[in-house]
Structure formats: C-alpha cells, structure tokens
Specification:
alpha+beta, homodimer, ten-stranded antiparallel sheet, globular, HIT family, subunit A, 13 strands, 6 helices, three-stranded mixed sheet, 310 residues
C-alpha cells in the first residue's frame, strides 16, 4: 500500500506508490545506447592540448596520466564572473576511452577518487571556495555531453541549497541528540531490508525515502566528514562498493543512465560525507516540479532486494 | 556574462549561463510528436463508464459535460491509504480529443479553470485536506500518459515542500515589509524586460531566477489568494494569458513538452496565487540533483523578448 515517507534529514517527502503495478524489472532499458560522435576525444591521452588548462593529475608527465582534472570549457561559475564566482572543472577518472564507469577496474576507480580528493583538498585551501560538489552524468537521459567517462566539480562561495539544508538539519540533530544522524542511519539501515551492499568501511543502501527507483546512498560507517579523509585502503573500499553498485545496476537494467554526486563537508564544517546515486528511470513531472515531493513507484526494499539479487 | 540569481522568495539559486553560446531559437524541437496509442480514449465523452468515479463537472448531464473531474485510476494518495492520505483526481478541461492545451479556444480554457476552482472549493471544505496542487503534463518529455489534454489534482493533509517554503517566506516578508512580495513582483517585474504578456488582471513574466529556458510565472496583479476567488470575467482573463503563453511557446519552439502547476493558498492561509510554466528543454543533471540549484543557459530577459516576438 502507498506510503508517504520523509527523508532521513531533509523536510523532503516521497510517496512510495507501489499500487502503480510496476515491478523492479519493468525498468529494464530497451533503447540501444546512443551512438558516439565521431572524431577526436579531447579527454583521451595525447589530446591534452585540446582541453582548457590542467588543474591536477594522478600519474606521470605528459600523456602518462592515470586521472586528470582541467577547467570546464563552458564554466557555469568562474573566478572571472563577478556575479557567478566559483570553479568549474572536469575530472577524467581514466585515460581509457570507456563510456561506463562500471567497466573500470576498482583500482582505476580508486585512482579517480584520489583525484576527487586531491582537487577538493587543493580548492579548500583557496580563498572564496566554501563548498565543492562533485557529480557524474552517465547516459543521454542523465545529461551527458561527451562519452569518455568523467565527472565534474563545481566549487562555490557558499554551500548550495541541498547541502546547506542537510548541514542545518545535521547540526540541529547533533545538538539535540548528541549523535551524528548519518552514523545512526548507517547503524540502523545497515541491518535493514534496505541494505544493498556492504564492506569493511562502506554501506550502499536504498534510502527509506528514495526519490527514484533504485536510488542508492553510499556512506562510510566511520564518521568521516570528507572524501579527503580517506586513506588509500579506504578509497579502494569505496571504489569497490561503487563498482559493485554500478555494475549491478548496469547488468540488472541494461545500462540505464544515472547521476551520482558527493555531499562532503563545506570548508571547516563538521559533517558525514556520502554519495547519492540516482538512476534516470522516471520522469519527474508537474507534481514533482510543483511540490518538491516525489512519487516513486518502486519501494526501496524491493530495489535493495533486486540489487542484492536475492 | 554568467550570473547567480536568487528566486523572488525561495532560498533557491540559478546560474544564468549565457556563455554556453545557446540562443533562444536553439531550443526549437526537431523530433516529431510521439504517435498516439490506438484504441478508445477514456477521457472522451461517451466513455464516462470507463473512468473511476466522477468527482465534479461543468456542463450538462450524461455525456454533455464541458469539463469533467474523476478519481485517478492509480492514485498516489487516497483516503484509503492510511500512510498516504489525500486525494488524487484527473481534471479533463475539454470534451474534445485534443492533445494541446494551446489549441483550445480561450472560452474552453476558462471552463477548465472553472473546474479547477470548483474542485478546490469543494475539497477545501473537506476534513483532512490542507492543500491542493493542480498540475499539467503535456508531451512525452513532461511525463504524459494519455494524450487527451488533462490536468491532475493532488490534495494533501499539509502543504507540500515548495508551497510550504513559499508560504513561510511570504509570511516573513509580510511581517517585515508590511507588503505582499508577489504584489511587489507584479508591480516591479511588470515594468521590466522580463515581462512577456499582460492584460487587465494578469501578468506573464520570465522570472528573474528562471530554472529553465522559457519558464513563465503567471500571476494576478490583484492580491488574490486562490483561483477560487476569480469571477467569470477574471477566469477568462487568466485563460487568455495562458493561451497566449502556450500558443506562443508552441509556435516558437515547435511544440515542446511542458509542465505547469498552480500554487494556491493552503486552506485558511493568506497567499497570492500564481502559476508556473516550465518547458522541458534542458536535462537537469548531477549538478541540479545534488545541489538544488539550476544552470539555465537562456537569460530570462532573452526568453521574454522571444515570447513577445520583439
């Protein structure tokens, strides 16, 4: 039966509408993947001169990089826009011309995460940067522009709307309950029917108030404020659960488009960082746009079960 | 040059990113409209027995109705869902089997608005209903299910997230400034480069912090809390500006998909009602989903100019 559910922290509600008669496997994608544009891939090694200036890399000199960051060619924000200050970078997680993040070995994903951490660390040392959002678009329905897998980083002078709201609720919970709400979510949901995957440090759960079918929340069990706090071994564990989640999603639903993003601490703030993965399977229509609520026809418990392959 | 803009009321920000080199007419749709499914249209006169029970109508008996409301076949909320209480109805604005609202004469649109007002009036007299959201999806990209033009109404026991937030900001502004913020928006923006259309009672403006190319805000110049407060003549004026907006959008961009919705007073609250029209021209990707901010590549001033056809 249908149920209105509130987000763990936000004043954001979802109507879980199982009565629509949809089952998880009704979301298997039928369309073939979009054809790649022909021509030179500016994200491939050897074409570094075709990108805007580099801002960071992992690996060797010249074309010997393993992951590489550079300015976005069409920045949304920039130090040069007085009314839209910020940084906008592209983060390429692999030198291989591969469209799917799920196809990369976990060691390569870990190198991508190392680049994320490096850029956040460096940008948080700069003036005028208060918060960075790293996000990935994969597939046409997720707003992709170039196929070679990559993410983007947008750093702003203040925390964006959703991060600011999470931070506020986080702070209020800490003051009242003397505990981290995300630590409690990890503890409680890690034992629930909503757990999809788990390893020594990370959990992937279908959140209680999932906005979309097969949404996942990936969070560390330890109280870590930022991806910059991860050591090499922990980055590999995050890469492992991320690859497992993406590979399972890809196989289960025939390569659906998705977005993921990281919510990390705004500079100097206490927080518990996490990733949110949103497959693009449902169209948010007039109700979602006008209400700020969501209708999700797949119960998170059913999504978690499908991820686990029970 | 790019610019971060704040919404009139909400703590919601948009990056107007004109540097992406897009011009308004780059959004002309190329795809032909989706083919209609064959078979009986359950929204057409003569098929009343195929819909769930009727909740209201304008016009005569039997199949002689001019506009008709009934329960949604797959309700998101219902008096029968203890954990998802509410009402979910379909509002068919015309007996004619027409896919585009813009194709209706303004007198017929006014009849549709009369049905909206009637259902809101009746539902607001019921227990357990605190706020109604009326919305329309038109076109595949906007989440349409059946082509015969129609809207939906979802009534809930409390104001949904975005309405609650507008109401809160509205109340704070009223207390501080001793004025209605929407009256001031109408006064100020009605004289600006963001005005698209105007008549004796209504304004259509491309809002300062438009989330998407060609967004429109339609609002009464008079301080009216709800669509139920409109008389026959004012409904015709709202129908006129709505038709003008939709017809111009349709012609200008070759029939793009869109959503619109009405933000009206939650029961017993002071407010200034308005409509928001969002063409589905841009994909909200990882940045929008993760930040709650928007990147809009068309300046509202350019959108308003294109609407006016200057």
């Amino acid at each position: 039966m249908n149920e209105i559910r509130r987000d763990y922290l936000l004043d954001r509600y979802v109507i879980v509408a199982e009565n629509r008669g949809k089952r998880p496997y009704d979301y298997i994608q039928k369309a073939p993947p979009a054809k790649e544009k022909e021509g030179t891939c500016v994200f491939c090694p050897g074409n570094e001169h075709l990108t805007p200036p580099e801002t960071g890399r992992i690996g060797g000199k010249g074309s010997k990089w393993l992951a590489r960051a550079f300015y976005n060619k069409y920045p949304a924000v920039s130090p040069e826009f007085p009314k839209a200050l910020g940084r906008h970078e592209v983060l390429v997680e692999t030198p291989k011309h591969v469209a799917k993040m799920a196809a990369l070995p976990e060691e390569q994903i870990a190198i991508g995460l190392e680049l994320y951490a490096k850029r956040v660390h460096e940008l948080y040392a700069e003036k005028g940067v208060a918060c960075a959002l790293i996000f990935k678009n994969e597939g046409a329905a997720a707003g992709i522009s170039l196929t070679h897998t990559h993410s983007q980083l947008i750093a702003l002078a203040s925390a964006p709307r959703l991060v600011a709201e999470e931070l506020k609720q986080y702070g209020e919970y800490r003051r009242k309950e003397k505990a981290c709400p995300y630590c409690e979510v990890a503890e409680r949901e890690g034992k629930s029917a909503r757990k999809a995957f788990e390893n020594e440090e990370f959990l992937a759960i279908a959140p209680y108030a999932s906005r979309t079918p097969f949404e996942l929340l990936i969070l560390p069990k330890s109280h870590l404020a930022n991806i910059t706090e991860l050591g090499e071994e922990e980055r590999l564990l995050l890469a492992r659960i991320l690859k497992k989640s993406l590979a399972r999603l890809d196989k289960m639903l025939n390569g659906p488009a998705f977005n993921y993003y990281l919510h990390i601490q705004p500079k100097g703030k206490d927080f518990h960082f996490h990733m949110e993965l949103l497959p693009r399977l449902a169209i948010w229509a007039g109700f979602e746009l006008g209400s700020g609520m969501y209708i999700n026809p797949v119960a998170p418990e059913a999504a978690a079960k499908a991820y686990r392959g029970d």
